[in-house]
Design goal:
Ubiquitin-like (UB roll); globular; five-stranded mixed β-sheet; alpha/beta; single chain
Length: 590
């Protein structure tokens, strides 16, 4: 393990560590703009320059390996002036509308410029021609703000395996975007928004729909209801200064009421509904395969993550029959709100506006898919990200930190802890196993506190096996069967699982895929930056929410039972098939 000195502070680091790693271990801040911990270290921005004894030039600390005996200085006049010049050059080609940019006070370029004492743009002249791309329903790219750090390129290509973004041209004419200057809507972009979560500036982010929500709330003819995804409650607080992983469920409900929503509901309710439908679908597929000996698409893949669905449509259309036909909880809620709920309150579906608060930009795309209108109108009208809700609460002048706690409205507000853990990687799988195992055996899942530990970590691909020891009469054919499951988060890991299935190496019955690293808690619409430390804090909060509930299993939710008794009749029945299930189609791989 090499030992070096940084600003005369001795520090020992692991083999393979960089000078930047060593500086952070020594408690010394070195600014960066292109660096992404554990993902990208390319030395492209040159902001992390340091002085190394014996070197003729300054070196980029993020890519320079630490070596025994090195003497590094991070705060000399030469270093400060070099960093300042680099940032001044970036600012000279940057669209400086900070006052109206939604990244104002959340911009890494702005922060570094402030840290370096830059008070004006030193270099003025021609700026590159950088277009705006607003072709997708989820994302907007403002290339006039791009600093060519290539973070988005790395995340899209390496983490997600989509590779929809590339550096085009060279030098002053460099432009980050789809090949040949195409728009995002015309390429394989799955609209997951991970590019926006890592962007250090305002070059790419979600399509802002706050004004659409205000317009709906101001329309007296509309009955406006809101649903909140499970991941929101563990992240929204970060918009108001809370530490990552702080649960703010009650304050969130109060804030939504004060914004003027007519009903404040929980996507968790339809997450429980999803488990009933998707779990029943899995059991039906297993019966066809094991008893009826019929050809059936196995393994069954979860279908809650819209980025994953679009990825499958583009890259693996041969696996579309393997996708569960169950809609995502967001879309199930919209369909139920505009039928079951509308009937209860005596409203027409077209007079109800369903607003979703989601951790995910791809949910904006999902809501406008043409097949998502089984209620007779569009199931979900408007989708806001966690970040947008944070901005909307601030626009309303609401002091979030002082709000009292409140509870969700009935009848679509009650949920189980199993629904909460939909937010985490492995959560949908665990929720499904809690219900399916109990349906088949008549007994609870035999794990400590109902948790399936092998699928709960941040490891990219996780596997588990569960042997059914006994079964009730209806499911006797499953007695002694070992059910094999897999969980992947991040589309690059989903690709690994699919390739293992194609090669015959992966023999699974059920596979969960979440588009974003960590699951929904790391979604493209969550507060930035979402590091592994932040993911772990949010995941822990979600499990805490689950464990604090009396109801821990989806099939125990009395309001879910009620909606079947009063309206849906039975899982996979005619009405639930019409409202809660859908289909997907192959897309071009461009």
């Amino acid at each position: 393990m090499p030992t070096l000195t940084i600003d005369n502070i001795p520090v020992e680091v692991a083999n393979g560590a960089t000078i930047l790693d060593a500086a952070r271990k020594a408690g010394i801040r070195v600014p960066t703009l292109c660096y992404l911990e554990g993902v990208q270290a390319i030395g492209a921005c040159r902001v992390c320059l340091v002085e190394l004894e014996g070197a003729k030039t300054l070196v980029a600390s993020c890519v320079m390996p630490a070596a025994d005996g090195m003497k590094v200085l991070t705060n000399t006049k030469r270093v400060r002036e070099a960093r300042r010049m680099v940032v001044e050059l970036l600012l000279s080609d940057h669209e400086g509308d900070c006052q109206t940019c939604d990244r104002n006070d959340d911009c890494e370029l702005q922060s570094v410029a402030r840290e370096l004492g830059i008070r004006k743009v030193t270099y003025e002249g021609e700026k590159g021609k950088r277009p705006t791309d607003d072709s997708t329903p989820a994302l907007v790219r403002d290339m006039a703000k791009c600093i060519s750090c290539r973070r988005c390129v790395t995340v899209c290509g390496e983490t997600q395996g989509v590779a929809g973004l590339f550096p085009q041209n060279r030098g002053f004419n460099t432009l980050i975007g789809p090949a040949f200057g195409a728009k995002l809507a015309d390429v394989v972009c799955v609209q997951c928004g991970q590019c926006g979560t890592v962007c250090p500036v305002g070059a790419i982010g979600e399509r802002d729909q706050i004004d659409e929500v205000w317009a709906a709330l101001d329309d007296p003819a509309k009955h406006v209801v809101v649903q909140t995804a499970p991941a929101i409650r563990a992240a929204l607080g970060e918009c108001f200064g809370y530490k990552p992983g702080t649960l703010v469920t009650g304050k969130m409900v109060t804030a939504l009421r004060r914004l003027g929503f007519d009903g404040v509901f929980d996507t968790n309710f339809t997450a429980d509904l999803t488990i009933i439908e998707e779990g029943t679908e899995l059991l039906v597929r297993l019966k066809k395969a094991l008893v009826d000996k019929e050809p059936v698409a196995l393994p069954q893949f979860t279908s809650c993550s819209p980025g994953w669905i679009k990825y499958c449509e583009h890259f693996y259309p041969e696996f579309l029959p393997n996708l569960s036909t169950a809609k995502s909880p967001q879309q199930m809620f919209g369909a139920v709100a505009k039928t079951y709920y509308a009937n209860k309150i005596g409203k027409r579906p077209e007079d109800i506006v369903v607003v979703s608060i989601m951790p995910c930009t791809a949910k904006k795309f999902e809501a406008q898919r043409p097949e998502m209108n089984d209620s007779g109108v569009r199931d979900v009208d408007i989708v806001l990200t966690t970040r947008e809700l944070g901005r909307m609460i601030k626009q309303a002048g609401i002091d979030f930190t002082s709000l009292p706690d409140d509870k969700m409205d009935a009848p679509l507000g009650l949920s189980s802890g199993a629904a909460d853990i939909f937010a985490n990687t492995g959560g949908v799988m665990e929720a499904a196993l809690r219900t399916v195992y109990e349906i088949v055996t008549g007994e609870p899942l035999p794990f400590n506190n109902l948790h399936v530990k092998p699928i709960e970590s941040l490891e990219g691909v996780k596997e588990a096996e569960l042997t059914i020891p006994k079964a009730v009469p209806d499911w006797k054919f499953l007695e002694g069967v070992t059910v094999r499951v897999a969980v992947a988060h991040g589309l690059g890991n989903a690709r690994k699982v699919i390739e293992r299935i194609k090669s015959g190496e992966g023999q699974y019955h059920f596979v969960e895929v979440m588009t974003c690293p960590g699951g929904c808690i790391g979604g493209g619409g969550q507060p930035r930056m979402t590091t592994d430390a932040v993911r772990k804090a949010r995941i822990a909060a979600i499990y805490k929410e689950d464990e604090g509930k009396k109801l821990r299993k989806s099939h125990d939710n009395p309001e879910v039972k009620q909606i079947y008794d009063e309206f849906l009749v039975k899982p996979l029945g005619e009405k639930s098939h019409h409202l809660l299930h859908t289909h997907y189609e192959a897309r071009e791989k461009v």
